[in-house]
């Protein structure tokens, strides 16, 4: 009975640690550890496999006590267990040498170890023998964990100051370790349990599989159990959802602890908690099961690495979960999507241009035939009513409208009156621009809003601009020539152009790597391009020279885009940070950090107050330009997101990813109240979305890279012919 | 560890590793063999490497390579490509702050060589020593064309126009499926349905199939032509038979390349069939030639599958081969060239469309043989039959023509040496003689053992023996000359180019062969496309094309070739340097196009005639030939429609008296 008392003593110690380490799970652990204590008197049988474990447990306890200067307890325990001093010292030193967190090795058996096992076994509590897990998951396990955890922290913190201290600290969380052989059993046990629960809970609880699997695998790898890790992977990787395949491939290539250091993907998995949404009922079910089965290994992972977002309400169905899952770090947290988004459009500025002037200037500027049409006041009346969802006009400072901008707006309105109404019975005409002889080198395309210019970014680092109207591209004259011009003349804007340079296309040289993103400014005076060389360049379309090279991304910049109001632009790339720039600042105004993998596409909201970024971590984030906060995390895609688009009214967003799906989002209204089970964020279409497909138009051998609706609703498409 | 890493990166930068990221590992657990480590270590000067360190290294290297490959994939995706290139890997290395590997800027693939020996297998990058003078003397490769922008309508109010820039509305495969297996018509939109049907249980499949067959006996197809199509049809047919040669060339070009003609095919085939019927009666040689050129153009169109319309086209073509009279003045007009041309068309359609169900080839062969054997057959028809047969290939010549040389010789002798019956007969006999000599000589030269004894030939082949003998000697001499030229005209192109255009002036020779066989590819050499089938295959240096061409000399009387040939080798893979969209063909097999400018004497006054002969690989067709020769006439046709078509074919057999029987 003295041994049992010792056990209780240990329990108290453990409680203390528990309260320190865990926050909300401590109560559970206590309840958990006390219940087997009560059953221990009944259970006398002891499986031989567990004896080694118990011995280690004891050694670990001793070690912990020693470390905490509880020498008295050490002596008592040692006396009771009949353990000699050298028996516990040797494994400890060995493990310390290994540097893996001061964990006694499994196979250590001293000369008298066997004899003392029989005595210890009486003292240790024994779980019901029906389950394989239970014989190992005894009372002592939690102590064992936490003691070793503590050690690990100290050891690694001491030794990890070489090159990447933070990485080591991050990874060291994996140093807590159970018997590697038991991992499959733990996992299998949970699997059996989840398969046996009620159908309504099964889908929700199945979400736990993937993060658990990954963390258990990483733990095994971290603790140098290479073979066990491989076996574990082979056994259970097939069970995971198919959309995790890409991650699993990366995972499987990591079989050594050294690999983990440099691997950013897994580092992310480690540092950011995997977010799951589970209904309270399902969660209780899981918790109860793990406590009953003493499955602390798994419970620990759930505590440490998972963020379980518990909600009250009906458990979600499989399809509901599938609609949201798939991202690298689980779903977005509920409170992350709470912020209000002002998705309405800004009020159109009142344009007070006298009729005659406007037409005259329009003629001068655009060379278009004069149209003596009485100007309608429709646009004024339309914009008088303030959209309740719109942000304040001055929420972010926007550039003032220049005269040319106003003219352009007027042109836009005129064009809009000729807009063709499209519908299922009235499909758009598509004009396709093929880039010939591009040798597979076309990487990005953009059209100007008025569809007069096309720009292409190429793998050979060049940017080319074409004029698709009869109006040729001309350069402004050199400074010397400009000084000779009569600045008072009416057609000064024409005179500054150098007729000799007129051509249909111009090439812009300056990048030193493939150009991946390209964007025209709304006023057609500037062009942005982002490249593999880590820079974003601003080009003038008046002089056809580079004006600024924005340096900040040190890695490839995958995409860039101008704000619909000009002046601001956004860029995002391999460094996982999206940057908001203003054209007259060489440093970014905002940095949006949070994505766990490359930012593959960036997009401004039509009201310029928000920025959407799509990432290879399979999430879309919406950022507030004013505050720099992330206001939405949209999950549901199963592959890297490669294209984004806002609806012209700013209310909806569409996204396309390599999973071959296009999702339509209606996530900016505050729809997600308590009962968010009804709303998945994106509009859930019926299974057969074929009905929505209005037409398929094949190209011969030309991948489509860019699409653009003109102001009159003609669809322009572009791609490189690829024979 | 740091030492290790330095070493690993050193290995990564050794060229031999570079091949591996190119191939995407199917299994995640693939690890490089330790032998590779040893080989790589040796290549950078580390002599002895322990087995354990090899194993450790190979694991580490495998992991690093996978990492780099994963990064490289990112660049591939952002480059909007489906093929990983060396530059992607360079960029991925740059991400890891490793210096990229220079010198692997190949567009298509890296020409690694494979070698084994001494129990070791190696992949290595072959760097040949190149003689500087060779480089200087090689003509410069063409400058790649600049990027240009071209606009076309992909869709007009939801309807895709059938223009060359757009893919054909009904792909050839679908047309083929429709005509050969009419019950399994799968329209693009109905694919899912089809697959579902396939998945049905086997028990009900048969009953269901029958039911389906009844219901879909006549697959619906629209035969209404839009206004534009009607206009097009009118313009094209007028141009084809009109008097303006330039317009005709344009029209034929349009027929041969336009992808949207599928719906107009029935009209065209009826037009040709009716046209032949009328013009044979009127002996209008010029129009018959124009119509045959239309057939040729239709057959050349890569987007059309003519099987459904053969019952109209074949009788027309055969009529042009064997008709008794094709022109008003048989003694002056060169109707022989028309027969030759039509015979070649016939041979081509046999090769393309003959199957075990329709048995076109054997039936055509029978038709020709039957009328040839007839004693009363005229010389013109006789000529046509022989031309038709001999175009079908050397096997047919060997089995059907050679045995009859003696008989035919006697007949020719009777005309040429006997009492003068008529001038026409004499000309006919002359033509038949030269035709026989030309075709038989080349076959005999290949098959007969060497001593060419004049007397022996006379004994074997009768009257024609001696002349044949001299022709055979010439043919052999020419073959020897060609063999020599293989060594001389080796053309090395330093930069692999998907499209290669070689212009070579013809070398004079006798036996003016106009058949596709004038391009001879020696069996030991392979003309390969720039992309090998599998990367693991040891690839011979792809940069070398050996093209050997001998052109027909202007020796034969009927055909005058001006001796200039343009040979275009185009491979289906890779990026074409040509700028026109329409020029890309989607054929799978390498296509050898022979454009020969032949100044034909047809019709006397017409200018240069230009036509294109496409020679297809002969292996498939020769096997078909032998098959169709042995098999009985089709009795086991599977589908009612093709059976029906077959019966039609029988009905519309050609009689050699110059008119077509109505269907």
From TrEMBL, chain A:
<feature type="region of interest" description="Disordered">
    <location>
        <begin position="353"/>
        <end position="405"/>
    </location>
</feature>
<feature type="repeat" description="WD">
    <location>
        <begin position="634"/>
        <end position="666"/>
    </location>
</feature>
<feature type="repeat" description="WD">
    <location>
        <begin position="550"/>
        <end position="591"/>
    </location>
</feature>
<feature type="repeat" description="WD">
    <location>
        <begin position="508"/>
        <end position="543"/>
    </location>
</feature>
<dbReference type="InterPro" id="IPR007582">
    <property type="entry name" value="TFIID_NTD2"/>
</dbReference>
<keyword id="KW-0677">Repeat</keyword>
<dbReference type="InterPro" id="IPR001680">
    <property type="entry name" value="WD40_rpt"/>
</dbReference>
<dbReference type="InterPro" id="IPR019775">
    <property type="entry name" value="WD40_repeat_CS"/>
</dbReference>
<feature type="domain" description="TFIID subunit TAF5 NTD2">
    <location>
        <begin position="179"/>
        <end position="306"/>
    </location>
</feature>
<dbReference type="GO" id="GO:0006367">
    <property type="term" value="P:transcription initiation at RNA polymerase II promoter"/>
</dbReference>
<dbReference type="GO" id="GO:0005669">
    <property type="term" value="C:transcription factor TFIID complex"/>
</dbReference>
<comment type="similarity">
    <text>Belongs to the WD repeat TAF5 family.</text>
</comment>
<feature type="compositionally biased region" description="Gly residues">
    <location>
        <begin position="98"/>
        <end position="110"/>
    </location>
</feature>
<dbReference type="InterPro" id="IPR020472">
    <property type="entry name" value="WD40_PAC1"/>
</dbReference>
<dbReference type="Pfam" id="PF00400">
    <property type="entry name" value="WD40"/>
</dbReference>
<feature type="repeat" description="WD">
    <location>
        <begin position="592"/>
        <end position="633"/>
    </location>
</feature>
<feature type="compositionally biased region" description="Low complexity">
    <location>
        <begin position="30"/>
        <end position="52"/>
    </location>
</feature>
<feature type="compositionally biased region" description="Basic and acidic residues">
    <location>
        <begin position="12"/>
        <end position="21"/>
    </location>
</feature>
<feature type="compositionally biased region" description="Basic and acidic residues">
    <location>
        <begin position="376"/>
        <end position="387"/>
    </location>
</feature>
<dbReference type="InterPro" id="IPR015943">
    <property type="entry name" value="WD40/YVTN_repeat-like_dom_sf"/>
</dbReference>
<dbReference type="Pfam" id="PF04494">
    <property type="entry name" value="TFIID_NTD2"/>
</dbReference>
<feature type="region of interest" description="Disordered">
    <location>
        <begin position="85"/>
        <end position="110"/>
    </location>
</feature>
Automatic annotation (TrEMBL), chain B:
<dbReference type="GO" id="GO:0000124">
    <property type="term" value="C:SAGA complex"/>
</dbReference>
<comment type="similarity">
    <text>Belongs to the TAF6 family.</text>
</comment>
<dbReference type="GO" id="GO:0005669">
    <property type="term" value="C:transcription factor TFIID complex"/>
</dbReference>
<dbReference type="InterPro" id="IPR046344">
    <property type="entry name" value="TAF6_C_sf"/>
</dbReference>
<dbReference type="GO" id="GO:0046695">
    <property type="term" value="C:SLIK (SAGA-like) complex"/>
</dbReference>
<keyword id="KW-0539">Nucleus</keyword>
<dbReference type="GO" id="GO:0003713">
    <property type="term" value="F:transcription coactivator activity"/>
</dbReference>
<feature type="region of interest" description="Disordered">
    <location>
        <begin position="160"/>
        <end position="220"/>
    </location>
</feature>
<dbReference type="InterPro" id="IPR004823">
    <property type="entry name" value="TAF_TATA-bd_Histone-like_dom"/>
</dbReference>
<keyword id="KW-0804">Transcription</keyword>
<dbReference type="InterPro" id="IPR011442">
    <property type="entry name" value="TAF6_C"/>
</dbReference>
<feature type="region of interest" description="Disordered">
    <location>
        <begin position="623"/>
        <end position="642"/>
    </location>
</feature>
<dbReference type="InterPro" id="IPR037796">
    <property type="entry name" value="TAF6"/>
</dbReference>
<feature type="domain" description="TATA box binding protein associated factor (TAF) histone-like fold">
    <location>
        <begin position="30"/>
        <end position="96"/>
    </location>
</feature>
<dbReference type="Pfam" id="PF07571">
    <property type="entry name" value="TAF6_C"/>
</dbReference>
<dbReference type="InterPro" id="IPR009072">
    <property type="entry name" value="Histone-fold"/>
</dbReference>
<protein>
    <recommendedName>
        <fullName>Transcription initiation factor TFIID subunit 6</fullName>
    </recommendedName>
</protein>
<dbReference type="Pfam" id="PF02969">
    <property type="entry name" value="TAF"/>
</dbReference>
<dbReference type="GO" id="GO:0016251">
    <property type="term" value="F:RNA polymerase II general transcription initiation factor activity"/>
</dbReference>
<feature type="compositionally biased region" description="Basic and acidic residues">
    <location>
        <begin position="207"/>
        <end position="220"/>
    </location>
</feature>
<dbReference type="GO" id="GO:0046982">
    <property type="term" value="F:protein heterodimerization activity"/>
</dbReference>
<keyword id="KW-0805">Transcription regulation</keyword>
